[in-house]
Design a protein that fits this description.
Elements lengths: L1 H9 L7 H12 L8 H13 L3 E6 L7 E6 L1 H11 L12 H12 L1 H28 L4 H53 L7
Helix pairs in contact: 2-3, 5-6, 5-7, 6-7
Length: 201
């Protein structure tokens, strides 16, 4: 539950209320992660309170409604330390819609495969240009800069994957294309067999 631990990390500096945590999270990780839904954040805080990792107190305000203030507990700091100092293991696999698109393009033949690969290449190059611009804009924010560097590295690896796809899948797409006339002829024969036959007079 990485977002739960990120909230614990933010609370190591000082107690915060919900909207302060949302703003600090978005400032800390920058645009690469995306915004944090305030409703989801309050669900996370409720769970952390229930688990004893965070305590909640109420702050009275004269001109506005009272607000909840969340404070990291000793148990919460121990949980954060355990999580933050152990290696991350990928558990979601490497599923990506691009692989399904490659499956479809190979089935359609070499021209479709080449069209997909070139289109995807231009998309990745555009992403790299945008990431380079973000990197310059956030050069003085170390954590955000690291996240952007990771995105750049991933995108460069994806570009390399396209070269691998062209090399390894090209022959397969050509073989699929060669089989297309046979499939068309087979379908035509099937249609002819299923056509209504006239009665003998």
């Amino acid at each position: 539950m990485p977002l739960h631990h990120a909230v614990l990390a933010l609370l190591t500096r000082r107690p915060n209320h919900g909207y302060e945590l949302k703003a600090r999270f978005e400032e800390a990780v920058g645009p690469q992660w995306g915004g944090l839904n305030i409703g989801h954040l309050y669900q996370i805080l409720e769970r952390l309170v229930r688990d004893g990792y965070v305590s909640r107190s109420q702050v009275t305000q004269t001109d506005r409604p009272d607000k909840n203030l969340y404070t990291l507990t000793e148990a919460g700091e121990a949980e954060l330390r355990s999580w933050a100092t152990t290696a991350w293991v990928r558990v979601g696999g490497f599923r990506d819609e691009l692989f399904l698109k490659l499956l479809g393009a190979v089935a359609l033949g070499p021209q479709a495969l080449a069209t997909l690969i070139e289109s995807q290449r231009q998309t990745y190059l555009s992403e790299l240009a945008g990431l380079a611009q973000q990197r310059r804009a956030h050069a003085d924010e170390p954590l955000v800069a690291v996240l952007i560097d990771a995105a750049i590295a991933h995108t460069k690896a994806d570009l390399g994957l396209l070269d691998s796809a062209a090399q390894h899948l090209g022959p397969l797409a050509t073989a699929q294309s060669a089989q297309a006339p046979e499939r068309s002829a087979s379908r035509a024969r099937g249609d002819a067999d299923e056509a209504p036959r006239g009665r003998a007079g």
